[in-house]
Amino acid sequence: MKREDLIKKWLDNELNTQELEAFKALEDYENLVKLSSATKRFKSPEFNSSEALNTVLHTINTAKQYSLNWLKPLLRVAAILAISLSIYYYTTNLDTNINTLAAQKTTIELPDASSVSLNAASTLTFNKKNWATIREVILNGEAYFKVAKGSTFNVITSAGTVTVLGTQFNVKQREDFFEVVCYEGSVNVTYETNTEILKSGDSFLIIDGKFIAKEKETKLNPSWINNESYFKSMSFAHVLHEFERQYDVTINSQHVDVEQLFTGSFVHNNKELALKSITLPLNLNYSIENNNSIVLSRE
Amino acid sequence: MQTNKEEKQPLITVLKQLESQYDVRFSYADANLKNKTIVVPPEGLSLDELLKYLEENTSLSFEKLSDNSIVIRNLIQKRNFRTQYL
């Protein structure tokens, strides 16, 4: 038997006579016996839990009395005031951001009596606080503006800036497409270094950096306001992109000539009917997969 | 209209006038209507009569999708002209 095992058994008083002999034969036997008797004197200290509890409770009670100190509550009030002030300052100076998702439209009242209708998948940003001095909005997408008479009103887009005094107009900025149509009053369009003045019924259209002349607009407002998208001699690709935005779908058109020009419209509230009105004229078939994916093919 | 009623006019121009007259929208591929002309239809036709008139005087089909949406298609399938993609 090993030495360790012998010592263990000895400590547990489990040695039989044979093993005891072996144990006594160990060279450090005497030291082990000494050590064992010595350690028996160690004792864990007495611990009085109820007395300890009393001490703790006493400490807590005395601490409470000290909290009557006037400085702490004052600091708390000051902190709350500082936080609310900074939140107020932050939010009132923050730009207001309005977003529409695909298949979504919204109308917003601006701080003056002006209103903006935002078409699907568009963003409008403006600052309420500075509105009295700067009437300015940043547009990404398409919006129809009815601007109240007053100081200059600017619509800034990545393609160009539209400046008006008080009028009704539509701005559409998508991919390589920038169009402004004036429905009432007059509108200044700044594109790169050129500025053009549009009167009621006039349009300004840039596709892929090229200016496109358009006929006089006879409608009183853009068709999308009435839940219909209308196109006059637009590339089929442009029509499909608008369809994707209005119905929140993706269209696979890889087997179709998307350069050809389309004239006509599709409604926003009937997907099948809308699909027919854009595919039938071009002799195309469509199939709807997974409800939000549409594949076009030639007849 | 000041021009002679018997005189042919570009189909696209005529359709534009008819759109506001009948409160309808025509949808078409520009290529199918290019260079096509038509005599302005007589006044007082119903919408169905108008579509029949247009079909008879063009080589196109006028299909009513809804009360105010009309699709114009080429009657002659242009299969021969289609070139393969890719």
Question: Would you mind describing this structure in some detail?
Answer:
The complex is a heterodimer of chains A (299) and B (86). With 299 residues, chain A is of the alpha+beta class. Chain A folds into four domains: 37 residues, no CATH class; 44 residues, no CATH class; 131 residues, Jelly Rolls; 73 residues, Phage tail protein beta-alpha-beta fold, CATH 3.55.50.30. Chain A is built from seven helices and 18 strands. In chain A, the strands form three sheets. In chain A, strands 1, 2, 3, 4, 5, 6, 7, 8, 9, 10, 11, 12 and 13 form a 13-stranded mixed β-sheet that branches. Chain A has a three-stranded mixed β-sheet with strand order 15-18-17, covered by helices on one side. In chain A, strands 14-16 form a two-stranded antiparallel ribbon. In chain A, helix 1 crosses helix 2. The N and C termini of chain A lie far apart (95 Å). In chain A, 26% of the residues are buried. A three-stranded mixed β-sheet of chain B has the order 2-5-4. A two-stranded antiparallel sheet of chain B has the order 1-3. Chain B has one domain: 3-Layer(bab) Sandwich (Phage tail protein beta-alpha-beta fold). Chain B is globular and about 30 Å long. With 86 residues, chain B is α+β, with helices and mostly antiparallel strands. The longest helix of chain B has 12 residues. The chains are: A alpha+beta (299), B alpha+beta (86). Chains A and B meet through strand 14, strand 16 and helix 7 of A and strand 2, helix 2, strand 4 and strand 5 of B.
